[in-house]
Design a protein that fits this description.
- Helices cover 17% and strands 45% of the residues.
- It has 124 residues and is of the alpha+beta class.
- The protein has a single domain, classed as Lipocalin.
- Strands 2-3-4-5-6-7-8-9 form an eight-stranded antiparallel β-barrel.
- The longest helix is centred in the first third of the chain and has 13 residues.
């Protein structure tokens, strides 16, 4: 993560009311260890599907499967302080990268504007 990206993330957390004392931004390697080859369950944080459940599988080979309220297939990859996903249908196939913040047992997936995209409540 560049210094600018770090400042943006910290500012975004504060501006959008996401920051709590116990929040910890996860590194790319922490995200990989927590999510790779696991089934993640969570709740969508914004948009027309806010509050609805999803399941997400991020496989070690870089493929991804989304099921539940939304269904799609795609790819994912790790960066230094985020993960990036490209879906066949969601965002018309455009890649988007997300920071992940650990808050207690939950992991908050933050959109580039700092809003909560998804709250991951389980990784098994």
């Amino acid at each position: 993560m560049t210094r600018f990206q770090g400042i943006f993330l910290a500012t975004g957390l504060a501006l959008f009311g996401v920051a709590h004392a116990q929040d910890q931004v996860m590194s790319g390697e922490e995200i990989r260890a927590a999510w790779s080859d696991k089934t993640l369950t969570g709740t969508i944080g914004a948009g027309p599907h806010a509050g609805k459940s999803i399941e997400l599988q991020l496989k070690a080979d870089g493929t991804a499967v989304l099921s539940g309220t939304l269904t799609d297939t795609g790819t994912w990859r790790i960066q230094a302080q985020s993960y990036c996903a490209t879906w066949a249908q969601i965002r018309a196939g455009q890649e988007r990268c997300f920071a992940v913040v650990r808050r207690g047992a939950d992991m908050l997936v933050l959109a580039p504007d700092g809003s909560i995209n998804t709250t991951i409540t389980s990784a098994r």
